[in-house]
Amino acid sequence: MASLTDTAVPSVPSPRRWSERNVSLTIQIGAWIGFVILLLPVFIVVLAGLNSGEYLTFPPEGLSLRWVVEFLTSETWMGAYLFSLLLALITMAVSTVLGTMAAIVLARYRFPGRDLLRAYFLSPLILPGVVLGLALYVFFVTTNLGLARTLTGLVIGHVLVTCPYVIGTVSAALVSFDQSLEEAARSLGADAWTAFRRITLPNISAGMMAGAIFAFIVSFGQFDVSLFLSTPDLTPLPIALYISLRYTFEPTAAAAGIFAILLVIVSMLLTARLVNMRKFGGIKFS
Amino acid sequence: MKKLQDKLGRPLSRRSLLKTGAALGAAGSLPLFNINHVWSQDVMYDGGVFDAEGATLNIGEWGGFWEEFVNKNLLDQFKKDFNCNISYDSSWPWFPKFVAGGPKNPVYDITNWNLPEMFKTAGAGDYFLTKDEIIANVPNAKDCWDFAFENGVGVTWGFGQYCYAYRTDLADPHPTNFKSFWDDQYGGGKRGTYITSNTLQMIFFLTASHVFGGDYKNLDAGYEAMRSAMPMKISDFTGNMQTLIERGEVVIGVQWEGEVYNQIDKGVPIAAMVWEEKKPILTQTKTISRYADPVAKKLAFALMNRTLSPEYAAEFGKTFYMRPTNKTAPIPDNLASKGVTNTADATNGMWIPDWHWYLENEDDVVETVNEIFAG
Amino acid sequence: MSTAADERTHLDSRGHRLRVFLGGSKVYWLILPAFVFFLIFFIVPVLSLFLISIDKPVAGVVDPQWDFTAKNFIRFFTRATYYEAAVRSIGLATLVAIITLAIGYPLAYLIAKTENPGRNTFYMILVLCAMQLDMVIRLYGLMVLMGDNGLINRSLIDAGWIEAPLPLMYNFAGVVIGLVQFTLPFMVLSLIGVIRSIHPSLEEAARSLGATRRVAFWRIIFPLSMPGVLAGSLLVFAISISSYVVPALMGGWKVVVMPIHIYQQIAELGKWQFGSAIAVVLFCTSVVAVVVYQRYAAVSAGGRT
Description:
The structure holds 3 protein chains of 3 kinds. Chain A has 11 helices and no strands. By secondary structure, chain A is mostly helical. Chain C has 15 helices and no strands. Chain C has helices at about 5-10, 15-25, 30-50, 70-80, 80-110, 115-130, 135-145, 150-160, 170-195, 200-210, 215-225, 225-240, 245-250, 260-270, 270-300. Chain C is globular. The model of chain C is unreliable at about 1-25 (pLDDT under 50). Chains in contact: A-B, A-C, B-C. The interface between A and B is medium-sized, with 23 and 30 residues.
């Protein structure tokens, strides 16, 4: 019985075993420079959160968990963290569903205006987040649907900027998925829905998972769109950080950063258990 | 194209379209303006404690340490006494939020301002109660000096002086007058000021125009002064400036005295050089929104009353070195040691620019100064 | 048995295509929920905002006054500070795209070629971790690193290599560094899948014919990964050109790009009309970029998509 971790037919026919020895030294050096650039600020923030003193100096004064404790016991910070978590989960669910459905149609069918439609779904990313947030805020207030300053309003904004990613990853998975498999199932008598559910869906699950994680991460770290849509009761972590850092620097903010990182690690490990990461096909926008 | 207009001759907007639709369906065609106006008049407050039955009061005020202080010294007790909730929003700016909702949909019931933004908002619509309406409903307001109402829009409850904040260990010699900011020793980006929308930068600019050009309305002199001060570090809030100075990234920066004294108390090697050539005043002014919910409005009156109380003023003075406007407020020792007294002429010699003139010219100033900063 | 390729070449007559499209599967309606959602909550609000860009500019007014004029756009294109900001935005975004490509490609290549699942997951976690950290707090980390009194400058000065601190923050360089740091994961993730799908035997064949590793890379692998390169570059370009926080904080409010102008005009000055005109220009610029990309991608992919 097919499970999520293996498929009926591998999507890349019999891959040869490439080891890292075959990757040239130049590329390896380049890659590690990339890692350093990505991770140095993260490293600094983690250090700042564990610093025993109030201001981060180099060399650090010493390690201490006091800011971590302060973070865990602070109503504002924990509230913001948990709220971001909730918001990201809801956004992830909605985006994944909407995005997958859209991607299926976009990737499999050729019809006039398809490119335009793709651009249509990509457009929220092109607009500056602050403009989108403002436009939504004004829209909610003017139409008086009761969406202004509510969780739903915030979710809507987040879904708009995360859906494109889901569409991208699922499209990529669909492209590398050989559609003839589904057609074979159809020719054997399965109806469209069963063929889709039993053959295609498991194969693109990696793409869906990747899209879902993307949506989660982008929503959790989303600042621009949340700026105008958040309220004191509905404050996601990035906004809380911004507000706090504007007025003063507290290492508790850095501790919040540490927990955000931990969240990623946990969710990544979880996904690695559920999905074979090698199946991840990347992102595709056209 | 002819401007679409409604029955009252006001320009038709999305808002009024939807609202009119709803009103027509519900109550016939009563003009909505009158309903709200009547509504806004029947809230009175006499200074006592009442039960708000869990209503929410929306506040717009500065965040960070300020917010913690306000919560501890005012709001926690207020919530208990009046049985209400408080929604404290510190994500400034306030202006776009007010304007996006319009006067009938105020985003906050009681708001804390610096003057320019307050005038800008007041000029965009009938957002706030007048000073007479406030005095009639806030007992402690009668105890405030006249200058607290000079602005004509809200009640000023505290003020302070502008100064330079400088590192005593890194600045040599120490600054002695307004022009010291331009000394060569601070070259290479050691000077600090703020973005054009921050009141402190506006005042700094106008003061520079006065000192270098003889008249604070001499914009060209001001532009020249900004140009020759570059490169500067630009901050968006005073809290951020505090961090920059503490880290030594900025050696001399525009500030107001309260935050500098605060940092001195914490042991940072910093001092304040108060401006003498022109003494601008940094005010904290509160307004109450005209079309706030009736219960919320009553709560706003009550909160305003407590904010203006001598006890609160004394606490604020002690922690923030904020000068009071209530004539019965005692001056705490730390303020007194700086020579502060609580008299009717406490603000004598202090200067408030003609903000209406500034707002008319704001576009040019913002564009030009931003260009200078970016250059 | 007909293969997918056969099926597609089959579909040259429009009628046939349409029949397959409509009758072949009932799944085409799946796109409707997303489409309607975007319509109500994206197209309508943004269009209303854009509508007032051709309105008469009045401070503090956000409702359409139905008094149309091109004044706002004229102002944009005649005042140097604004169209310079447009040029700066485009230049910045392009530069960031190029740099992230140069740095991200080796990284993506390494991860794509890593077969060991544990190691692979580990690398992915590293990349996603970097992406997860909030921009605001990352800025603090970068300030500690690159400020005048930051780690880099302090060590260089102490070691005697430089006299005055290098201005790495609160300027254009700082913004570039911040944006590269922020968008690098997006580029890497766009590239991984594509690189992985390049069949190893292609490179092997080239090598066996005598090509050096470098030639094999530039002549075979890189061109084949073009779809990913273009997708990643487009994504990075779009993110960079519309970013507000990074230029604001890393640029010390001195690197003025279009999102900053938009925010200032709307949020600080209350000039909704002019602000939304700037937003329209920004939006059109990005749309042009997307169209250029789509054309280029179609050409280079040679009809494989």
